[in-house]
Amino acid sequence: MIFLVLSTILPFITLAVYLPMAVLLVWTWARTREKAFAWLGVAVVIWPLLSHIIDRASLIAVRGSWHGQAVKYFPYDLARRGTISMYSLVQIISRLEQLIGAALVLTAVFYLCRMKTQNTLRQEA
Fold first, then answer.
1. CB-based contact 27:91 (threshold 8 Å)
2. 3-class DSSP state for residue 71?
3. For residues 32 and 35, what is the distance between their CA atoms, to the nearest angstrom?
4. DSSP 8-state assignment for residue 83
5. pLDDT tens, 15-73?
6. Quick one: which of 56, 58, 74 has its CA closest to 66?
7. Using CA of residue 24, residue 27, residue 30, residue 33, what is the dihedral sign?
8. Which residues, 6+ apart, have CB-to-CB distance to 89 below 8 Å?
9. Distance (Å) of CA 54 to CA 13, 34, 44, 120, 121
10. Which of 88, 92, 91, 68 minimizes the C-alpha distance to 79?
11. Do 34 and 115 touch, CB atoms closer than 8 A?
């Protein structure tokens, strides 16, 4: 019973966390026009949502293969043909998602550091 309630409530709580974060980032970017806030929005708001969609597609493909349904789209057809195991494929996709997320955050941090340096140089001049 508690798991059913949690599985129903948690997506709304997650949305309640992401929505103000997105609004603040868009508002700050619109006010400053700094690339850092756009990259931060991509890294901490847009990419997690896209990653969730990719995870859901992976789950559907894995469930389909477990039930003997032929998954005909790339890269899941590799597991169907026996080129790679489904476990390895899901591992690779998961690691790639983490790598892309980390690269986006690194880009945002790079722009944030650059923004701070530019502001310091402006104040000194």
1. no
2. coil
3. 9
4. S
5. 899 899 999 999 999 998 899 999 999 999 999 989 988 888 888 877 777 666 766 66
6. 58
7. negative
8. 75, 76, 78, 79
9. 21, 29, 16, 40, 42
10. 88
11. yes
**Identity of the amino acid at 28:** T
- Record the pTM: 0.74
Measured CA to CA, the distance from residue 120 to residue 81 in angstroms comes to 57
Quote the distance between the C-alpha of residue 24 and its chain's center. 18
- State pLDDT tens for residues 82-91: 787 878 888 8
Nearest CA-CA partner of 110 in 39, 28, 30, 24? 39
Q: What is the largest CA-CA distance in the chain?
A: 68
Q: What angle do CA 94, 112, 34 make, to 5 degrees?
A: 105
The tokens 């690779």 sit on which residue? Answer: 92
